[in-house]
Design a protein that fits this description.
The chain is of the alpha/beta class. The protein has 10 helices and 16 strands. The strands form 3 sheets. Strands 3, 5, 6, 7, 8, 15 and 16 form a 7-stranded mixed β-sheet that branches. The structure holds NADP nicotinamide-adenine-dinucleotide phosphate.
Length: about 350
């Protein structure tokens, strides 16, 4: 049989989308405790923009060239020594931060989550980073309660849509900031839209929100904190606005540090930063448990993640330009099996 070919999306330097190239690569071999997967789907995320621009704390030490790709749904095609409990053909998922925008890759067996075989791989891929982040923000970090009034910044984004969908399931009363043309989408997801380009969200509720989720950091989270009620909680988890404004990493880290100082201000408001990697490092069982729960919700059609487009290798650079330009209403997912003409 012909040996399968590997291709990868490589960051050849730090910088804009042009820093990426798609290249042939050696086929990896599963080492001890590892499996090799044929990649079925791998997300293209806004977080990849941070990694590519050298603005992501967890990957600051990596030096190009390295392979991009935060998460993966794959089918096991090789078992390394010492691996038990998995078979060839099993579908598995992992969050790898880098390395998964590839046709083949190896993964540590002890980090895998099983994927029900009949799930659509691209839809399943959206659940790994974006929806697990949303689930953990709601149920692990903020521990929301039915009836709470919650504001989601960047509500039309990958994490934002997941926060609204899962927030509705949790019985929350929801508001979401998004650009005007996305108002219908926000309503469809069960929230009241606020046009972030025209409206101020701070006076929307006279006594303030119970919880605000903010992955944008417009004005360094200041207005999100101001929009809380007394005793309310700001869960910050990203700083897209700082990236767009080409702020330095030190500035963004200062915004995050300041969140903890705000907790000392009078008024009893609280603020914290959530990181999926930090939570996975501290509580690895939660990551698998939460992702399995989301796969279950997808299998029963309880949640419907939106895939804006399935991307072939030759469209990855353009996909990164689209991620930076904004305006997407769903997630871009690399599907290595797609022929160029299908993209
Ligand atoms: N801490 C963690 O563990 C974690 C996990 C996942 C993601 N993140 C981070 O969270 C952020 C969001 O991730 P994502 O994947 O959801 O990104 P995304 O898909 O790009 O979504 C961001 C959304 O924010 C909107 N937006 C831009 N500027 C805004 C503003 N001033 N006010 C309100 N909305 C605005 C964008 O809308 P337009 O289309 O109108 O521009 C877009 O819909 C990223 O910075 C990402 O790196 C962190």
């Amino acid at each position: 049989m012909k040996e399968p070919q590997n291709r990868v999306v490589q960051a050849k330097r730090f910088g804009g989308p042009d820093a990426l190239q798609v290249v042939d690569a050696p086929l990896p071999t599963a080492g001890h405790g590892e499996v090799r997967v044929r990649v079925l789907a791998s997300g293209l995320e806004y977080t990849d923009v941070l990694i590519r621009r050298h603005l992501y704390p967890q990957t600051m030490r990596h030096r190009p060239p390295f392979v991009m790709g935060y998460d993966v749904i794959g089918e096991i095609d090789q078992l390394g020594a010492g691996v038990s409990g998995f078979d060839l053909g099993d579908r598995v998922a992992d969050m790898t931060v880098i390395g998964s925008n590839a046709a083949y890759r190896t993964l540590r067996a002890d980090r895998l989550t099983r994927v029900p075989p009949d799930l659509d791989p691209a839809e399943a891929a959206t659940l790994i980073l974006s929806w697990t982040t949303a689930y953990q923000l709601l149920h692990r970090a903020a521990r929301v309660r039915r009836g709470q009034r919650v504001l989601v910044q960047g509500a039309a984004g990958a994490v934002g849509q997941a926060l609204l969908s899962l927030g509705r399931l949790a019985g929350l009363e929801l508001w979401g900031t998004a650009r005007g043309p996305h108002a219908a989408l926000i309503r469809e997801l069960g929230a009241t839209p606020i046009d972030y380009q025209r409206e101020d969200f701070t006076p929307v509720l006279a006594d303030g929100f119970d919880v605000v989720f903010d992955g944008i950091a417009q004005d360094g989270y200041r207005r999100s904190f101001a929009a809380l009620k007394s005793g309310g909680l700001l869960c910050a988890y990203g700083y897209s606005a700082g990236v767009q404004a080409q702020r330095r990493m030190a500035t963004m880290l200062m915004w995050i540090a300041r969140l903890y100082l705000w907790g000392w201000l009078p008024g009893g408001k609280r603020a914290r930063f959530y990181s999926i990697n930090l939570m996975r490092a501290q509580r690895p069982a939660w990551f698998r448990e939460d992702l399995e729960r989301l796969f279950g919700l997808l299998a029963t059609d309880t949640i419907r993640p939106r895939v804006a487009e399935r991307i072939s290798f030759d469209k990855v650079v353009e996909a990164h330009r689209r991620l930076e330009a904004g305006g997407l209403d769903g997630k871009l997912v690399l599907c290595p099996d797609l022929r160029p003409s299908g993209g």
